[in-house]
Every structure is written in structure tokens, then in C-alpha cells.
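Sat 14:20. Reprocessing the chain from the morning session after the first attempt stalled halfway. Input below, unchanged.
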Amino acid sequence: MNFSLSRKENPLQLNPSASLDVFCDFFLIGSVSMDESLLLGAVCASLRMKHSVLLLEHEILAWPTLDESKMWLVGDNFLWIAPRTLSTITKGCAEKSLNMIQIKKFFLSL
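Finished this time. C-alpha cells:
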């Protein structure tokens, strides 16, 4: 499922995937709009459902190459998180309301 944290129009379209949830800091056509304060809880809920999570800070020109053997991948404008990372994120970010950049910084610090 695709989620947008902004209402700013963007022509980019992503096809929905049953195993990948995409959270964008910009509006996507056909996405569900949500408040940024709910981001960490929504990411954890996706991971609990065994979905991978892709956080996009800005538009991307090319789809990132995702290595399923890794637990997470950090790129210039994205963060990809595998479902088995749930315990890492819940231990490190418990009871915090983090925005997209703070979540990315958390994974960069590991």
C-alpha cells in the first residue's frame, strides 16, 4: 500500500504491491494520506504484517535496487526496511514519534 505524508501534488505513480508498503514525503496518486506523527507506528504495523517498507523522502528517478538478503538499505532519498528488522526498530525507537529523516538517521547510526 502507498501512504503519503503530504498533499503536494506529484505525477509519480507506484504500482501497489502486496509485500511492500511505500511511505512518501510527497503526494502520490492513489495513495492514502496520513499524518507524519503516525509514521513510526504505521511502519511497525507494516513490518508486523511481514511487509517490507520503503520510505521515500523525495521523488526518485529510478527504482532502488533492493537486496532482500540485507535487513535494511539506506540511499540518498530512500530507506528500505525488511520485516525482520521489526525488533531493531521497536527496541531503538520505542515510545518515540519519529519523522522520516529521524528514522533514516537511526538506521544510519547502526
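The longest strand covers residues 20-24.
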